[in-house]
Write a structure and sequence with these properties.
Number of domains: 1
Pfam families: MFS_1
Strand content: under 5%
Number of helices: 20
Low-confidence stretches: 4-14
Mean pLDDT: 83
Oligomer: single chain
Number of strands: 0
Order of helices and strands: HHHHHHHHHHHHHHHHHHHH
Membrane topology: Multi-pass membrane protein
CATH class: Mainly Alpha
Subcellular location: Membrane
GO molecular function: transmembrane transporter activity
Structural class: mainly alpha
CATH superfamily: MFS general substrate transporter like domains
Keywords: Membrane, Transmembrane, Transmembrane helix, Transport
Distance between the termini: 15 Å
């Protein structure tokens, strides 16, 4: 029975696409994914600008203390948190492409405004607004991805977004290294020029996204043939996600009552502690290992590549083994080892290696998103899962920088020990999630319904007894 559960939970892995469907997916990929990559890339560059600014003059310009800098890292996520509820309601009522375009223009404007800030209070207000306007981006992209792609394709899609985050670190770092040479140009410090340049780029991208982002399987931008429209219908039945403008409260309550929701959310919170702490303090942390300001900026590049490699490795292993949750656990374990090295070793190359290994958390995060996308159905329920995931993600990223206590600089031993423990808790949460879904699969395989489910009824995974969870 165990082997049958494993086979059924990954049965669409063996599905062979027709030539027509392959052509459709190729068209979808080239039309949709470049813009998604650009959004994720610019989002990370904008979010991480504070870390680079720390060694480009912002500390001196705004007369910031270490504690105030920690709060600037955290307050971004306060805005992020407050917008999650209204964002979830908006996602059921607005067209996603234009909505994302407006958000990009708004946060690009905030980036430019940040460049003229001179005090902690002004910077804090700008960081809060930046978090507020960026908050809708990821939930919106996740729901679009889950509608456009088959369940078996979604791990690769989420992996792509995480890889773009890593590339955001790489390309953003190279750009920041160049911007560092603009210091004092026009009497402005380099960090101000960084915010202006990335802000303008964000606004331009927002205008493009408003008009050209594919946000529906039948989007006119795809110019579908009649045969491709039939393929879209079949793919929609597979991914079990059909947009509904009606918020179904019973689906929300069903989600809230499920232990799985809270286990996944708490695992996300634990992973996000490390994400928030290391992103905000990455440049200062590396500088504390004995490198100069420009060297510490350039050494962010291997960190970006490590995050991209972690995501790529996690996706590759999960697709080869058909084991999403076990692979996520493996990536959390590797990340935990990296954090242990950071806590235990005072100085040297091995400590820097530990920093890069810790970015295996990117693979774990990618696969956690895949679990929600693959194993939750019902449009309102999926939005609730994504929304709760983002709330806990936000709380974790808010707390993470505060764990990097100034009097422990540059080693931040307490933070590293905390991040290692958080990875362990993530592993335990994921084991329980897998146990719950495997147990439900066993019941369903013993009592399968011979009638196929009509996906347009918008049933939840709990209501649809034909729904088999991908483990």
């Amino acid at each position: 029975m165990t082997n049958k559960i494993e086979q059924e939970s990954s049965r669409d892995i063996a599905f062979e696409k027709s030539d027509e469907e392959k052509a459709y997916v190729k068209k979808l990929n080239w039309t949709f994914l470049p813009l998604v990559g650009a959004i994720v890339f610019i989002q990370f560059c904008d979010k991480a600008s504070l870390s680079i600014a720390a060694v480009m003059g912002i500390m001196e310009d705004a007369k910031l203390t270490g504690e105030e800098f920690s709060w600037l890292g955290s307050i971004f996520y306060l805005g992020y948190l407050l917008f999650q509820l209204p964002n979830n309601l908006l996602l059921q009522r607005v067209s996603h492409g234009p909505y994302l375009g407006v958000l990009l223009v708004l946060w690009g404007t905030v980036m430019i405004i940040t460049a003229i800030c001179h005090t902690f209070a002004q910077l804090a207000a700008a960081r809060f607004l930046l978090g507020l306007f960026e908050a809708g981006t990821n939930p919106c992209l996740y729901i679009i991805l889950s509608r456009l792609y088959r369940r078996s394709e979604q791990s690769a899609c989420f992996g792509f977004t995480t890889i773009c985050t890593g590339l955001g670190i790489v390309i953003g770092t190279v750009a920041s290294f160049g911007i560092a040479y603009m210091d004092k140009l026009g009497g402005w410090r380099a960090w101000r020029w960084g915010y202006i340049i990335f802000g303008v780029a964000t606004i331009i991208l927002g205008v493009i996204v408003f008009f050209f982002l594919v946000d529906d399987p039948n989007s006119p931008l795809l110019n579908l043939s009649e045969r491709q429209k039939l393929i879209v219908e079949e793919r929609t039945r597979d991914n079990a996600v059909v947009k509904s403008s009606h918020f179904k409260y019973y689906q929300m309550w069903e989600a809230i009552k499920e232990p799985r929701l809270w286990l996944l959310s708490f695992a996300t919170l634990c992973s996000s502690l490390q994400n928030g702490g290391l992103i905000t303090f990455s440049t200062q942390f590396v500088k504390g290992l004995g490198f100069s300001s420009t060297q510490s900026i350039l050494l962010q590049i291997p960190g970006g590549l490590a995050a991209a490699f972690g995501a790529l490795t996690g996706v590759w292993i999960s697709r080869k083994t058909n084991q999403t949750i076990y692979t996520s656990i493996l990536m959390s374990f590797i990340s935990m080892l990296g954090c242990i090295l950071l806590a235990a070793i005072p100085q040297g190359t091995i400590k820097l290696l530990g920093y890069y290994i810790s970015w295996a958390v990117a693979g774990a995060t990618t696969l956690a998103l895949t679990i929600i996308s693959n194993d939750v159905s019902g449009y309102t329920k999926k939005i609730c899962y994504n929304g709760m995931n983002m709330i806990f993600f936000t709380v974790g990223n808010f707390i993470g920088p505060l764990m990097m206590v100034e009097n422990q600089s540059p080693r931040y031993v307490g933070g590293m020990v905390g991040f290692a423990a958080a990875n362990l808790v993530t592993i335990l949460c994921m084991l329980f999630v897998r146990m719950l879904m495997a147990r439900e699969n066993k019941k369903r395989l013993m009592n399968q319904d011979t009638e196929p489910t009509d996906v347009y009824l918008d049933k939840t995974d709990k209501e649809d007894k034909n729904f088999i969870y991908r483990l």
